Amino acid sequence: MPNFNGMTTDRNYQGCYAEVLFSAECTKLGYIVSKPMLDSSPYDVIVDTGEGLFKVQVKFTSQVPTVRKNSIHISLSNSYVFYTIKAVDYFAIYSTYFGGFFIIPNSGNHQAFRLNAQGKYSDNFNKFVFK
Asked: Do 27 and 125 form a contact (C-beta atoms < 8 A)?
């Protein structure tokens, strides 16, 4: 697994890397993955589970938890615009520190997530289940 802390800080490269990892894992599980033609789409991929189509926004972070908080913080965007439930069904956040994805359903009001191994979203770690 590449170490992005020393390899590259190009955010586009890191985002593409996370999208490829996510798509490969979904394909390995038997899902069909499609990518929109436009980069301006609010979602990065569509996952077809055979029981439904799910729009997924993929994020990348190479943050290391602070000692005090023992968690990482990831913003979903640089603006105050929310990802609506109509626009995105799930967030798939790849963490180099944890070595996998936190796959979190969109509630429609997330602007950021705080992630750690025993926290609120620990049950969402590497759980590629879409409903």
From this structure: no
Phi, psi of 81 (to 5 degrees): -90, 130
| Percent of the chain as helix, strand, coil, to the nearest 5 | 20, 30, 55
Q: Which two tokens stand for residue 123?
A: 């049950």
Beta carbons of 46 and 34 less than 8 angstroms apart: yes
4-124: which CATH architecture?
Answer: 3-Layer(aba) Sandwich (3.40)
Specify the pLDDT at position 110.
Answer: 82
Read off the pLDDT of residues 109-129 as tens digits, 9 standing for 90 and up: 888 898 988 889 999 999 999
